[in-house]
Amino acid sequence: MTPSLSRMIAQAAGRLTFPVKWFTYGRRFRYEQPQKGRGREFFQWDIDILGTDSFAADAEIISIAASFYKKLGLTPQEVKIKINDRKFLQEKLSAMGIDPDLTLPLIKVIDKRSKVTPDNFNTMLTDAGLGTEKVSSLLNILDDKDGYKNSEWLTGILNIIKQYGFDDYVEFDPGIVRGLDYYTRTVFEGWDVKGEFRSIWGGGRYDNLTQDVGASQTIPGVGFAMGDMVMEEVLKKCGKFPALTVNKTRVLVTVFSPELFDKSIELSNILRRENTLTELYPDPRTKLERQLKYAARKGIPYVAIIGPEEMEKGLVTLKNMSNGEQKMLQKEQVVKQLI
């Protein structure tokens, strides 16, 4: 989605006011073997800021993800956001004397570290062209959890996140690199603390992507993508998956007969204008008894009835479906009764 967004922003750059804050949520598809937390069809939340190379934008994006955790009831003891700076890592690799041509292939190897055993990882580093001494040096870098203190960029991001109040959710991890080539600086991923799942979501800064997709100008950006399937599994594992109410209808407005359908519509309009969650039975030919059974099966707590007697008196019969109690009320009183 990110390359498509960059292409779209580049094409419309002359009509946009930067920085652009953009998000979307929708259905996505990918071709892979379905497994727990990953499917060929899923929903994904994308959120980005484009048009600024300030690390304040990175801090805001990361804080949005942390805020989302908090709203879901997930705690820093259950989930973390791990961050790194690929440029900072590349500078360290260069200082080790690693050939620049090996940098991106090496980053792809580092990205696989959490998926393989330590011995296999060491073998992969050797196969990538590192000698024993450089493998040891690189492992020291990847295990140095205080390495960010030497980076103005990372300390700046973490300080702003602290001001937002989400520093408990965020930690530096020099092993987070993200395997995609277009990331240029900050990279970050969501992980569960126990490590029972693969990366929950990920993102980063992509300052050159607009040019990579063919645009003549550079429009820096930062953002993340989060799918629903892994997040659902994490919420269930942590006992935080919400109990969703399937039907929130407060009242069913019944239709006594086709001749009185217009009265039922009138009452529905009144209730809806007052923000009462109202359902109007759609078939005026259906017997009232069947409409009441419909309300009971759907768990609708109240039904409103306007029959000949009610129409003559200008009243509405409101029936409580849980105890069977019925009252004849003015239309305005029905709203108060349903609050």
Count of spatially separate domains: 2
Under CATH, the topology of the largest domain can be stated as BirA Bifunctional Protein, domain 2
In angstroms, what is the radius of gyration? Answer: 29 Å
Strand content: 15-25%
Strand arrangement within the widest β-sheet reads: 1-2-7-6-5-3-4
Number of helical stretches of at least 4 residues: 13
CATH superfamily assignment of the largest domain? Answer: Bira Bifunctional Protein, Domain 2
SSE succession: HEEHEHHHHHEEEHEHEHEHEHEEH
Question: So what's the CATH class of the largest domain?
Answer: Alpha Beta
Topology, pairings included?
Layout lengths: L1 H10 L8 E10 L11 E10 L4 H17 L7 E7 H10 L7 H8 L7 H10 L4 H11 L9 H13 L5 E3 L13 E7 L8 E5 L3 H4 L8 E7 H10 L13 E3 L7 H13 L4 E3 L7 H11 L3 E4 L2 H6 L2 E5 L5 E4 L1 H8 L1
Parallel strand pairs: 3-4, 8-9, 8-10
Antiparallel strand pairs: 1-2, 2-7, 3-5, 5-6, 6-7, 10-11, 11-12
Helix pairs in contact: 2-7
EC number: 6.1.1.21
Catalytic activity: tRNA(His) + L-histidine + ATP = L-histidyl-tRNA(His) + AMP + diphosphate + H(+)
InterPro entries: aa-tRNA-synth_II, aa-tRNA-synth_II/BPL/LPL, Anticodon-bd, Anticodon-bd_dom_sf, HisRS-like_core, HisRS/HisZ
